[in-house]
């Protein structure tokens, strides 16, 4: 939901997702003189409002701060023109009050008060359901709430049969994601069906929920990745959950488990639901069926209630259940989901399956990035493909905000520098620490030497061990094009925006056009993750350079205001996203005249074939 409210001095553009309400502010030049910040009050409609809180303070008012403390914005105002409330609940009406504070910090003067109401989105409107987990685990909140307690199997597996997470830390980290997946399975009734396609399949509460569904008469069938190794983790978990390979049904033997062995990375994580024998819904997204997927790295679960989409996914599941060779898998994926046009139909959903003969879909994504007129946002778990980086690095008026798993490469940093103020990357980070990955998996965490960060901030840690794995921070695969417009494009699924994800892996993506509700949910969540990591990246970088800064002290001089209104400055460009000076149209205007990105697909496939024999 989007709400705009203003007076002659102050304006607010509020965007509500499910659990985030983003507040963008604008102010006329005269009213900025003497501005000390903004106080924000919020309450459930019809109930008392309370002041939102932050961690920054005026030193004269807090001479002996404790890093664990936070402060009312009425006493220590927000010195920013972009603020988000991360403690909202889904499907709830809220009243907000915003006041600008002036005068003396010991006796503020309130001016230019704005009041408005907004409703957060329902997690599932019976067309699209969207759930993001906490993702940004290493945080002030994680330390103050749970003292950086490491997760254990006992904690993550402590789930009731009806899908309630009983451990408070696990529930906080899930943020509704695991509960939604469990509910989807648990609500499937006798005579209905579930078709599961799983890459990593080890989170026992999910497997046990599927076993209970099977026991109550649900037609459960599962395609899972089998490495054929003696210690295969998926097979071990299947054994613990006592999921049978076959069952007797109506006097006949029915296969339950189907092994996917003929591709090294069958990367899907979806579940199709059948009602009355017909596919009706599909759960998909980036979340592996693992404890790390639900409670660690940033992930999204996306539930589509649409018969046509579910039918396409069911056909894909059926093809994969036969464990096809690579060439057959390519034929099947292409037949089920032909290459999309540059402009998919208005108010539509299109699926895109892999593997393909070539990686031309990267060009399609790249074109959509260059078509962007206002804002492109992206989460990239691994390396930035050269095609994507070329698109991101083009000189353009649109802002591009990208969240990476790893520290930017030299090429990525160069692109950001060449587009300063318009292109910004953030990457997974722990405040005050360097995160060094090993090629074989795992990582070591090293405190930044000779910094004073421990005097200002609580110690942050990850909830999961770092002795194995390759992805610790960002696992979602999201591309948003003009998400604040009335014609947004949302791309989300399992594929990593890479050549391998397109030409080697089993993958699925959703392309969704024109759904502003879905765009608002995705935009507020990706922005949440982006800003969480960007602030840590900047602080860590400055600390590594030897800066001894007053990290949390508020400014009494007004210098904090200037960058928000300085031409070409990142903060000014960010503000203008919400208060544009002119109508610049949307991505579809340019996309309609773009060349066909798949025109040389056969030539690329032939060149690839000459370099490397096809699999299978």
UniProtKB/TrEMBL annotation:
SUPFAM superfamilies: Phospholipase D/nuclease. Residues 599-608 have a biased composition (Basic and acidic residues). Keywords: Hydrolase, Lipid degradation, Lipid metabolism, Secreted. PROSITE patterns: PLD (PS50035). InterPro entries: PLD-like_dom, PLD_domain, PLipase_D/transphosphatidylase. It catalyses: a 1,2-diacyl-sn-glycero-3-phosphocholine + H2O = a 1,2-diacyl-sn-glycero-3-phosphate + choline + H(+). The keyword Secreted applies. It is found in: Secreted. CDD domains: PLDc_Nuc_like_unchar1_1. Residues 586-616 are annotated as: Disordered. Signal peptide: none annotated. Could be a virulence factor. PANTHER family: CARDIOLIPIN HYDROLASE (PTHR43856), MITOCHONDRIAL CARDIOLIPIN HYDROLASE (PTHR43856:SF1). This is Phospholipase D. It comes from Mesorhizobium neociceri.
